[in-house]
């Protein structure tokens, strides 16, 4: 794997708020804290928190992998030292002189610097950053399978509570005949074209460049007895079925990553990842704000005035909610722990908004009783518009 382009303008240690000497445990603890504080579920409609969450995730993705962290540190060291410590050339970090007598670029990209041992110097730095085998003869990092993205549509309650869904994926999968090795015998040999380094050198005048070996695909290994079914690739195109667990609380547009469930890599190299993008259908009863559920419940004037206990739906069984006497129309009551499930076994709250439902067809007895009440209401001095701006 070559140095990633985004490394040039990123400071992953600063994004996590740790020093460059931080231990792996410290990096993990810090990332988890930042992820909890800035997670989109707990910070809806907060673009700053979302950006902090993304930066922390990107930083942790690199720094949690020992090999990538080493490459990243070497790259930073090279940049801080001013590239190659030369000036005068164009089109290269730090500026190269283009004459052979200044230095031989093959020493940097492919060979051992003159007079040096197996480590140190530019060859060692670039061997780590670009995985081009310097004097130590290190093999290129094996390639991996392609990442796959698919999309599923869930009911509101499925997304809130979590669910398990079957998926059918079409793409490269390990060959069952050779078990992904690409070889009839299951054995591979050192690639004769690149000598096992995974890179082949090409001289272009004063410059020497390295590129992934086209014979072995950069793996450093070659197949001498190709499998008849996969033609030595180790993978075949087929449709496979998998079961995906969607965690509770996913939101519309969120992606669920399943490591190693993407397309198989060639000749037994690791598979890519599967990203499942979730679309959530609206619900007829509930809306959602973070981990809280909102529901509007119709009630009668008498229930609000005299008080009552009403049934309110939840994601599971209904709950009984007490409406205090004198509750105004539109008031929201909180039922703790009956919202969207969270990690750790807790849940958000259920927010119940009461809304008066006005009867449209009253019989004679009900109409007579209501008129009697209306008269008593006036005689008591109650004026619903007292103090209202329109009454001034």
TrEMBL record:
InterPro entries the record matches: DnaJ, DnaJ_C, DnaJ_domain, DnaJ_domain_CS, HSP40/DnaJ_pept-bd, HSP_DnaJ_Cys-rich_dom, HSP_DnaJ_Cys-rich_dom_sf, J_dom_sf
**What are the GO BP annotations of this UniProt entry?**
DNA replication; protein refolding; response to heat
Residues bound to Zn(2+) 1 are 175, 178, 227, 230
Q: Where are the CR-type-classified zinc fingers?
A: 162-239
Q: Name one GO molecular function term.
A: zinc ion binding
- CXXCXGXG motif repeat ranges are 175-182, 191-198, 213-220, 227-234
Q: What does this protein do?
A: Participates actively in the response to hyperosmotic and heat shock by preventing the aggregation of stress-denatured proteins and by disaggregating proteins, also in an autonomous, DnaK-independent fashion. Unfolded proteins bind initially to DnaJ; upon interaction with the DnaJ-bound protein, DnaK hydrolyzes its bound ATP, resulting in the formation of a stable complex. GrpE releases ADP from DnaK; ATP binding to DnaK triggers the release of the substrate protein, thus completing the reaction cycle.
Q: What is known of its domains?
A: The J domain is necessary and sufficient to stimulate DnaK ATPase activity. Zinc center 1 plays an important role in the autonomous, DnaK-independent chaperone activity of DnaJ. Zinc center 2 is essential for interaction with DnaK and for DnaJ activity.
Q: Which PANTHER family match?
A: CHAPERONE PROTEIN DNAJ 1 (PTHR43096:SF54), DNAJ HOMOLOG 1, MITOCHONDRIAL-RELATED (PTHR43096)
Tell me the protein family, please: Belongs to the DnaJ family.
Quaternary structure per UniProt? Answer: Homodimer.
The name under which this protein is listed is: Chaperone protein DnaJ
Q: Which organism is it from?
A: Corynebacterium stationis
